[in-house]
Every structure is written in structure tokens, then in C-alpha cells.
Amino acid sequence: MLNIAVLVSGGGTNLQAIIDAIADGTIQNTRICLVLSNNDGVYALERAKKAGLESCVLSPRSFPSREAFNHALLQKVQESGADLVVLAGFLCVIPEEMVRAYENRILNIHPSLIPSFCGTGYYGLKVHEAALERGVKISGATVHFVDSGTDTGPILLQKAVEVQSDDTPKSLQRRIMEQAEWKILPQAIDLIAHGRVSVENRKVIVQ
Ligand code: GRF
């Protein structure tokens, strides 16, 4: 059984996709052992509650320093017994100590086809604004492992989504969520739960 900790900051639609995929058997052999949010009052926490999941809030603001927050974050995840950490729209930088402790065991979902529109400053609607500004005809989503860079870790899955001529950042964001993110994040977790994923020379191998 794969224990996963899901880290969130907002609406939690990706968390919901994971919850639903576990319920309908799309993700097998997996249990959510913790939902952790850095923001109080976000809808992701409501989703966790409705699903009867263990949840907690750790806000950087309630710690005397960033180091203290980073330490508490790692401790909480370790205490949960998580084998895999899933960043589902988590907007805090993952501390170096956590990247080391969970090497190739932290998954992130990014709403573009990496290496396009990723890295520092590319989050939320900004990603889609940049894609539309550049005039790309195809965008999509990427699931990758987290390393010490921003969106630079080994890529596990990607899915392309067509950009439409009348897209706004919001409509493109929504379509990428529906057609790509909510599919490939559960799929990635299921592959890991089946022991089919390994990383060699910073490249992901799926068996
Ligand atoms: C998603 O677009 C995800 O790709 C990005 O943050 C957003 C989170 O949305 N990293 P939600 O909280 O899962 O609804």
C-alpha cells in the first residue's frame, strides 16, 4: 500500500481528482495519509474533510522563521508515514532538506508542457497568460519529480491540450485541468503504486 501526503494551497481540484480516482479504482493500492495546506480556510481542506481524510494547516506565518516552518513541514510529512509526497497546487517552495529526504518521491503537477512556461514566477494563471501571449497552439500539463530547482526535476507524464483562438487565461486553465491535470496526476500515482516507475540519470523509466 502506497501512503501519500497531498500538499495543497487552494481549491483542491487535483486533490479531488486523486480522491475520486482512489474511490473508483483508477488509482489502486494507495491511501491518502495526510492532506496538508499552508492556508487556512481553503476549499481543499473542505474536500479532505468530506472524504474523511486526516488534514492539517501549517502556515509559514505562524512560525518564527522560514527554517522553523520548513522543519515542521518535513516533520509532519514524515510523521504521517508518507511514502510519496504529492504537490497538488502547493504554492510554498519545498525546502532543500525535504527534497533530500524524499529524493524522487515528491511529485508535482505543472500546468504547461515543461520546459515551456515553467520556472520561477510561472504559477497559476501566469502560466496560461504567458502561453497565450506567446501564441502557442498547444499547451498541456506535466507531472514531474521535484528536485532542488523550480520545475526542473525528472518528467514522468505529460499531456497536450489544444489552445483555442478565443481562449482566455481562465478558459485555458480550466481546459488543461479537465483534459490533462486531473488525468495524468492520478495516472502517475497509480504507476508509482504499482512499482512501475524508476529514475536513472535524472530520467524517468516507466515499465
Ligand atoms: C493547478 O493548475 C496546478 O497545476 C497548479 O496549481 C493549480 C492547483 O489547482 N500547480 P487545484 O488547487 O488543484 O484546484
C-alpha-based Rg, rounded: 16 Å
CATH topology: Rossmann fold
- Indicate the structural class: alpha/beta
Helix content estimate:
25-40%
Range of strand content: 15-25%
Query: Count the strands?
Result: 9
Shape: globular
CATH-derived architecture: 3-Layer(aba) Sandwich
Q: How many individual helices?
A: 6
Quickly count the domains: 1
- Per CATH, the superfamily is Formyl transferase, N-terminal domain
Helix-strand sequence: EHEHEHEHEHEEHEE
Would you mind describing this structure in some detail?
The protein has 207 residues and is an alpha/beta fold. It has a single domain (2-109, 143-158, 180-206), classed as Rossmann fold. 36% of the residues lie in helices and 25% in strands. It has six helices and nine strands; from the N terminus they run βαβαβαβαβαββαββ. It has helices spanning 13-23, 43-50, 66-79, 96-101, 125-134, 169-193, and strands at 2-8, 30-37, 55-57, 84-87, 106-110, 138-145, 155-162, 197-200, 203-206. The strands form two sheets. A seven-stranded mixed β-sheet has the order 3-2-1-4-5-6-7, with helices on one face. β4 (84-87), α4 (96-101) and β5 (106-110) form a beta-alpha-beta unit. α1 (13-23) packs parallel to α6 and α5 (125-134) packs across α6. The chain is globular and about 45 Å long. The protein starts with a strand and ends with a strand. The model has no long low-confidence stretch (mean pLDDT 97). 5-O-phosphono-beta-D-ribofuranosylamine is lined by residues 8, 10-14, 44, 88-89, 109-111, 177, 181.
